[in-house]
From TrEMBL:
Main location: cytoplasm
Catalytic activity: L-aspartate 4-semialdehyde + pyruvate = (2S,4S)-4-hydroxy-2,3,4,5-tetrahydrodipicolinate + H2O + H(+)
Protein name: 4-hydroxy-tetrahydrodipicolinate synthase
Gene that this polypeptide is encoded by: dapA
UniProt-annotated site: Part of a proton relay during catalysis, residues: 50, 113
Protein location: Cytoplasm
Top-level taxon of the source organism: Bacteria
Keywords from the UniProt entry: Amino-acid biosynthesis, Cytoplasm, Diaminopimelate biosynthesis, Lyase, Lysine biosynthesis, Schiff base
Metal-binding found in the keyword field: no
Amino acid sequence: MPDRRGSDFAGLSVAIVTPLADGKVDYGRLKEQIEFQIEAGTRCLVPVGTTGESPTLTHDEHERVIAETIQCVAGRAKVMAGTGSNSTAEALRLTKRAADEGADATLQVAPYYNKPTQEGFYQHFKAIAEAVDIPVCIYNIPGRTAKEIDVSTIQRLADLPGITMVKEATGKLDQCSAIVGTTDLTVLSGDDSLTLPMMSVGAEGVVSVAGNLVPGDLIALVQAAAAGDYEEARRWHHKLFSLCANMLGLATNPIPVKAAMRMVGRDTGELRLPMTPLDSESEQKLMQTLQDYGLLDTASV
């Protein structure tokens, strides 16, 4: 296996939520969440991704959340700023601003809704990679964007020195295997429940949603897998699988993770429309899931 570009982002990255209160970003709560992650040993924070409700933040909010995250982290972890867009010009503007603020890398989601051709994907990511000096992580999530970045396109992009990582969220282990086997890019799982399977074929970590709740447990899983201790890694995988599947399957991310954080005493406030809270039946299921995992005591359910 070749030495991999982007391997300094191996391990646990957490796609952090954006706390909201009274229709505005709650920067005090944001800092609390950052400190929680730092204390847990999280390797990298990823602000303003899907989990951070990036589609409904204003441009000013988007830029300030990134800036505040970088300032609060203060070099104690890496920051991979979510600065993707379905407009190349907008992605360039957001990414240049994040780089100027001191971001360590940029997470670039595949352009959504307008469904580019594979050549369009290539030219989009190429323009961004050539415009900034920070590493680019391509985010392949067709369930959100309506179109998949083909392996052949990722292989072409791997020839660009600025592109060093792929956040792989197609749900296809074959896709991960193909990228690892034919490029020197670092692959990070984009699905919590697939972290161990992907690491078994060469991925080097995860950009996690569940890490907002249990970063220490995710760290234990990825460290065991990285060390080749698959018995220990499987133990953590099976423990985490029920939490991830039962929580994240209730509704679109970040609806259930924000509800779970409130239930365990780390409230990050409201959602912004069109995201809406869980219904009462789903709330009860989530409470039971958290109790079964050991995050809530019996009296809470």
